[in-house]
Amino acid sequence: MPLSKKERATVAVTGVTGALGGRVATRLADHKVPQLLIGRRPELLPELPGAQRRGPASYADAGDMRKALSGASTLVLVSGHRTGRRLEEHATVVQAAIAEGVDRILYVSLVSAGPTATYLNARDQWMTERYLAGTEIRHTVLRAGWYTSTPAALADEEFVVRGPASTGRAAFVTHEDIADVITAVALDGDDRSEHDGATLDITGPDALTLDEAITRIAAATGRPYRFEPETLDEAFARRWRQGITGEQIETWISWYQAIERGEISTVTDVVPRLTGSPATPISDAAWWPEPKTARGVR
Ligand SMILES: NC(=O)c1ccc[n+]([C@@H]2O[C@H](COP(=O)([O-])OP(=O)(O)OC[C@H]3O[C@@H](n4cnc5c(N)ncnc54)[C@H](OP(=O)(O)O)[C@@H]3O)[C@@H](O)[C@H]2O)c1
């Protein structure tokens, strides 16, 4: 029997060498979806059944991205690293997708994305969202919640996390739950989807203070993680003494301040609604990173 349009649809995935895109690609391969895995260093892309490795293609390079996207019907665009030109880079990928006749884009953004978001990394995510909204292409915005792994990765060698937050809450979510939601939307490949034009905030099941989150991580790992709140002045002085740049200090402090201001605290039903399973509590996360491995907020 000939394959249906839905079964033939090829999904291109970016960010596959990373934590989130890699998980999405593995899940799509499990569902036997034909894929194009796109990366800057194709030799690092995984070998998965039904998947072609494409690249080298960086978001900023329109020609390489067009070549890499040729034949795709859906693009899962995982947001890139913050470079100061992230909007331009993402816009280049979107234009390359349109030029190659891609039907729809699933853009992986960040919860709290907004022009005045406290967390600095969330601001240009909003600009990409607005850019997409101004194009004709079908798209869904998947705003990833903050990873359950990040508080553990922020700890120092003695498992202490320090930062300027005390009573604010965050609905941390696992990479696995985020990848499951993205996969569910990608698999919904009909000509129309209820997710077209939607913005989905993918969150964990509870809004926790950092103290609560880190106490649960300690119980789950058996390691002596603990949280010590700092004033803004203490936070700044400690980071400055460590020789960290002003931009990094600002980004790092803004991560805690976004929690303190409640900007990450909303709990949504997106994970259970789209995956059919409850969102994973922080205590049940599948893995934990080593201390001092947080990217961008060190
Ligand atoms: N939800 C959260 O808590 C959270 C936390 C941190 C970051 N984020 C955001 O979510 C994205 C995905 O998270 P993640 O954990 O999967 O991050 P990750 O492990 O750092 O992976 C990022 C992926 O994006 C690729 N990439 C970055 N910039 C690119 C560019 N200009 N052109 C082409 N590829 C590029 C990287 O490729 P290379 O291997 O070539 O570098 C890598 O495959 C991050 O990039 C960041 O925007 C979210």
TrEMBL record:
Gene3D superfamilies cross-referenced by the UniProt entry: NAD(P)-binding Rossmann-like Domain (3.40.50.720), UDP-galactose 4-epimerase, domain 1 (3.90.25.10)
* SUPFAM superfamilies with a match to the protein in the record: NAD(P)-binding Rossmann-fold domains
Taxonomic superkingdom: Bacteria
- Name-wise, this protein is NAD(P)H-binding protein
* Segments forming domain NAD(P)-binding: 15-186
The taxonomy runs: Bacteria, Bacillati, Actinomycetota, Actinomycetes, Kitasatosporales
Recorded hits in Pfam families, A to Z, give: NAD_binding_10
